[in-house]
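Reviewer 2 asked us to include a model.

Predict the structure of this chain.
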Amino acid sequence: MAKYPELPADLQKELRETAEAIVRDGHGLLAADESTGTMAKRFDKAGIENTEESRRAYRELLFTSPQDIPQSISAVILFHETLYQKTKQGVPFVEILKQRNIIPGIKTDKGVVKLSCTHGETTTQGLDDLDKRCAQYYKDGCRFSKWRHTLYIGPLTPSAVAIQENANVLARYASICQANGLVPIVEPEVMTDGDHDLETCEQVTTDVLVAVYKALRDHHVYLEGSLLKVNMSLPGADCKKEYTPQDVADATVRCLSRSVPAAVPGS
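Predicted model (structure tokens):
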């Protein structure tokens, strides 16, 4: 069997150290990657006009919060617009985060498009110019990225086609990110819409994660320099059967232990 070239040792080291720093004990990620449309929904409820300045002011409030924030937050996922915004004093948000020992990252997917000949399933887009964007994001201070796709449980979904297509897209995304120095966060999310039971969600999530990590392996992704953002195993929002928190915890841990390689930081 052919031996494929690996990432340079110094790049592997940088990716691994970044990934480990993001998931270090007692810390979590702050998701500040809401799109302009999502921000509009939030501002509407508060009677705030959705302008670039109002979005900038909101993000500044988050990033300059009390000084003990770095004791709990290791990294922040940014939206493209936010990456290039500054405080009122003219300091780039990226620099504010770095000064507080918080790692800046960026959302890189561009939303979903329909998969033809499926029951309304989708795939995530954004690969076409990803290499160029990742190179620029690294130059502008980002050290990780995030890419999300969603799968829904129904009588005929998720299909094998949707699972495999999205696994391959995640793997290609991860490979491109690592080549440009960014730690890829892969997020295959099984949604809670529907009336499925806990056992079904556990099985579907396990199948999805197995497919994702098979694709990552096929694309020679350096697992020690990658991260997983995953859904819990949960019954559907309309499920009539009741489960305890312990049931959910057991199903989630069982799913992850069976499908996520130990090489992945935080696993």
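The chain is about 45% helix and 15% strand. The chain has a mean pLDDT of 96. We have added this to the supplementary material.
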